[in-house]
Amino acid sequence: MASGASKSAAFMLLILNMGLYFLMIVIGSWAINHGIVRSRETAAILTIPARIFPIYFPMGNLATGFFIILSLLAGVVGFTSSITGLHNVFLWNAPNLHAAYASSLASLSLTLLSMGLMLMPSHSVST
To answer: What residue ranges are annotated as transmembrane (predicted)?
Structure first.
C-alpha cells in the first residue's frame, strides 16, 4: 500500500476520471440548456401529461430528460469524488483511502443509475 508505483497509477487514473466526469458535466449542461431553450416551441404540441414537465428534450423520447438530469448529477458527484480522491492520494493513509473508497462507491452507483443500469429484481411470468 505504501509503494510509489501504485500511488502514481492512482493519481493518473484519478486525473483521467476527473477529465471524463468533467466531459459528462459539459455534455449534460449543454443538453439541459438545449432542452430549456427549445422546450417552449416543441412542447406546445404535446398532450397534457408530457406538457407538465418543464423541460422537454427534442432528442430521444420522454425519458431522456430524467437520464440527462441524473447524468448531470452523477457527473458533479463523480467530479467532486475525484477531487477528494486526489487529496486522499496525497495523504495516502488507511482512513483516507477508506474515505476515497466510500465516495467513489457513491459516484459509481450514481453513474450506473444515470446509464440506466438499475438493479431491479427479475420478475418471472408464469403462464
So the answer is: 12-32, 53-79, 99-120
